[in-house]
Every structure is written in C-alpha cells, then in structure tokens.
Design goal:
The chain has 8 helices and 5 strands, in the order βαβααβααβααβα. With 211 residues, the chain is an alpha/beta fold. The chain has a single domain, classed as P-loop containing nucleotide triphosphate hydrolases (Rossmann fold), CATH 3.40.50. It binds 3'-deoxythymidine-5'-monophosphate (2DT).
Length: 211
Amino acid sequence: RMENGGGRGALIVLEGLDRSGKTSQCARLLSFLQGKGCLAEAWRFPDRETSVGKMISAYLANESQLDDRTIHLLFSANRWEKRNLMESKLLGGTTLVVDRYSYSGLAFSAAKGLEIEWCKAPEVGLLAPDLVIYLDVQPEKAAERGGYGGERYERVEFQKRVAEHYHSLRDSTWKVVDGSLPMETVQEQLRELAMNCISECQGKQLTNLTW
Ligand code: 2DT
C-alpha cells in the first residue's frame, strides 16, 4: 500500500461544464488511487441523497421552482451538511475525489445573474481544496457529446456564461486540463496531478475557503 506516513488525505476537486467528462474521470481516478493502495473515496455535489439534496434534485429536474437565491443557499447548505464528515475523512487519511464543489456553486449562480460577492458569502468556512482540476472543453463541443440530458442548466448559451465565470474564479490551486484530449491522455494527466497533490499535502494543514 502507498505510505502516507499516517498523514492526512487530499481534497481533490474536479470542475468543468456539464458533459466535460468529469464524472467518468473521477471514477477512473478513484480506481487508480485505490489500486495504488491509497485510501480514497469519490464524492459529488450536489449530494442528492440528503433531504436538502432531494430538494436540489427536484429543482434540477424542473419538478419544482425555487428562487435563484434560495437554490444557491440550498447548494451551499448541501456542502455544509457534509463538511464535518469531509474533515474527519481527510484527517483520518482518506483522500476525497470530489465531482463539483464550491466553484460550481459560484459559476452557476453567477451565470444566472446573481452578484458574485453575494454568492461567495455562504461558502466561506467550507474546506479549501488542495487541488482543483478544471476539465476544459468548449461549450459547443460538450453539447455535441451525446447531447445534454433534460436538466435545467443543459443549454449551450447558459454553459458559455458558466465557463466565463469559471475562468474568473481560477486561483493558485487550479490546474487546467484540456478535456478535449483523448480520455486516456486526460486520465494520465489527472493521475500525475493527484499523486503529486497527495504527497505534497502531507506537510500542509487543511484550511478553509476564504474567498
Ligand atoms: P451534476 O449534473 O454534476 O449532478 O450537477 N450546480 C452544482 C450548481 O448550480 N451549484 C452547485 O453548488 C453545484 C454543486 C451544476 C447538477 C447541476 O447542478 C449545478 C450542474
């Protein structure tokens, strides 16, 4: 098994537009890490299993209507309700590979026209990722990939605005990977980034998002 010296796990987040390949890349990265003997779990937000998550899920499926600010706060609450478990997993040595996080929260809500500073406020104090991998694909290309499903945000014009907001959110923890490359090539890059992150985070304390 991979030795991490009893140290903490890494918080690794994958972000990108709908159909950017995040979900399959997360699953592959998880099996790779586990194959290396690394303690790792795959998480995703929204976590649709909780009661807040069920409200979010109904909203995304257009089965319920919620005001933009209300749904923003529900997405945030959905991360808050998982924060303590997240922290104890990480401190216990488990690496978390997370499909979407706070950046989705900001980029999607800002794309609807909410003010970015207002959007950031409820995210302050959530755990800060050690690494954010952004899978970069053109909105038009993403739409061609087997087409979008029927969920609320799956329209090219909206995804373009989301992409612009993602760009403005990039910080020092971000690595941009070209998601239009072959799946295997993308996966190789992810593996290297993740392995480096897991060894480098050993010496670093977990911190909170400050925005
Ligand atoms: P999935 O298709 O990946 O389940 O995402 N979203 C997600 C937000 O608007 N705010 C958030 O905080 C998060 C985590 C992105 C469902 C959709 O929900 C959007 C796509």
